[in-house]
Amino acid sequence: MAKTPEMPKHRGFPPGLLGTQWQFTLRRANSRVTPLTAWPRQRTMDQTVALADIGFVQALWQYFGTTPFQRGNLDGERLCRLFGRELLPAERGFDPASYEGLLKLNEPLARKNFPQAFEEA
Fold this sequence. Notes:
Helices cover about 25% and strands about 5% of the residues. By secondary structure, it is an alpha+beta fold. A three-stranded antiparallel beta sheet has the order 1-3-2. The chain is globular and about 40 Å long. The N and C termini lie far apart (about 45 Å).
């Protein structure tokens, strides 16, 4: 059995979008880390997908701002939906299949694509 890698946890980060099945964090590390790749965002009839993206960007902004952060226990699917656009590697030699890889929010593009995530509550 493959050794499970260490996974830094972001304590206090929202676990997901309340009232939906969409999660933002993982409970435990997996031996097969989901590699980060840019997934296309397609229109869907399920409005909770778009709400989850907005909520995730809002949580990233509130928790990290523009400071680089480790991937850690953040959900791979949510990260892939933003990766390469609103979420960028923050280091040279970025390993897309590592829980320790550093990422940063591309604030100008995130504000353009998800303006609701930056509105004051």
